[in-house]
Amino acid sequence: MLSFKLAIRNIKKGMKSFGPFLIACVTMFVMLFVAAAISLSPSVNKLPYGGDIVAQLMYFAIIILTIFGLMILVYSYRFLQLQRSREFGLYNILGFNKGNIAMVSLFELMISYIITVFVGSIIGIAFSKFSFLIFVRLIGGNYFNLEINFNAILMVSGIFLIFFLILMMIGTFIIWRSSSLDLLREESKGEKEPKGNFFFALIAVLLLGIGYYIAITVKNPISAFTNFFLAVLLVIFGTYFFYISFTVWFLKQKKKRNSYYQPHNFITTSSMLYRMKANAVGLGNITILLSMAIVTMVVTVGLYFGTAQMIRNVYPSEAQISYYNHFYTPKEETSESPVRISRQGLEQKVEKIASDAHVKVSNLKSILSATGLSAELNGSNKNQIKIRESSNYYSSDIYFLNFITVDSLNALGATQLPRLSKNEIALYTPEKNLKTAQVVNLEGTTYPVKGLVKDIPPIPNYVHTKQEVFLIFADEDSLDQAVEQYNTAIKKKDNSVSILSSTEVMFSIKPEDENKFKKGLGENSNFDLSFRSEQMKSQKAQIGGFVFIGFILGISFILGAALIIYYKQLSEGRQDKRSFKILQEVGFSKGEVQKTIKSQVRILFFLPIVVSIVHFGFAYIMISKILELFGITDVTIVAMVSIITILIVSLLYYLIYKITSRVYYKIVER
Question: Environment class of residue 110 by beta-carbon count within 10 Å: exposed (0-12), middle (13-18) or buried (19+)?
Fold first, then answer.
């Protein structure tokens, strides 16, 4: 068949045009295959911790990569069609009708699909196994053999089959609606100079300004999380308007200056303005991809390195055992299942279990507390504490209310605590207004504030936030009374389940004795036993999955940006070659032309990374707040991860600039 032979010949002879498209297809196939191979592999179930969670996270990555991959392939194929439009126009003139041309395009896509699946599967299997080694290393596992499930190949091949069917429809539509003259002129058709629209430039400033304002004015982690996607959408649209309208308006204003008529400024400004309509969308895409790469990697890597500190705060000792106290009297109460247990009683139980199991425990510390309750603060100095319904637990104005006794804080190592009489309280809170309160009203009961506590040690099973209130009571009876008041108020609002105070004992134990102690405790469901080392491994496995997905998505976004940059270099190079040839013919020296080329390339290349860093700078506070939801409150870790990530992405971007700019220079100077 002639069409099939032409398709094979076109791919062989036109590798300069088909090469970038095939590279884009194989790259996205490999990245998608890595996520699919790990999510469907039976090896995931053999991981010591978090195998199911990792598989679910990989499915999320597959969805993101599928959407992103389709965008990149459509962009790449549209560029390929543009480069080959003259060739299709000649086919039409030589007697091929549009159906024959569409058939040639169809066979080319079929061959490209086969090449993509074959090459992508081979590279994907190798890269998946290598990536799995990194992943297992991240989560602290010891099973390094990734078993490839054939369904992964079928899944990705099926997804790409849909991609190529979409590309076929796009290509057929373009061929069908174009005349032979349009096809001949499409490749050489330049962009009309865009009109500078002050209104759209103002919209760009407003959208970016509102997005930035939302990001820097978030007050707490909940509002940061709920407003994050709104701020992202505003900044994305603002970025496109910025490049499409604001940059055009700025360049037109620059034309009005006297400095514009200097040869260097004249050529650079005019050339950028003439094609800014096409450049704007490409620059906007690159900026968004770079911003997504930076944010994704900062969040996931920040989670990974901040988890260890968070676990140490939540589990101050290697082991801790908790008992949730009830305030009602059951019909039957046994010594193994008491209604309420004192701090001293729970310490004695721990010592007895250890003695019976022949293990050694030390550094016993016990506390009585009720943590993580939901409340709102009212009044001029925020001293009116109102209980919040559980349905509003994630409201942006929520405060986390916590009850604890002075003796419990002393046991945890707190210092400079005030002496309290019965019904008096001390306060710890970052809320500035509440710090000035003389009394606190808890649902109608007034507590005199004896003093403020400047710092509070880590509380077991509780993640500190910057929107919390600790009411510190003189004794256990006072704390019990406050808990009963809380339960009475919450039942009136939404009949929620009563909250319980907890008695907890923390102690040190050797890792090799942990299983003996666990067996000694038995299957008693009333006692909650946890070990810091186990929690560290479990959290590391889960966060390791986030980091790995962040790595895959970050690399995908950077590669997507690199492909767009490469296509822009090819497209701009071919257009600039004609323009700079004319400049040399009218008297410009080769050195002046090269200086102009380098100036324009630098501006077009480094503007996206600069704008991306500015985006991230404004988003930094919001990202830090979101990380607080996961217990990452160490600002030093977040700052260091952010700086290192920006440096790495900037370095990769610079390398992309150096590599792709050679392509541009070769085309222009040829």
Answer: middle
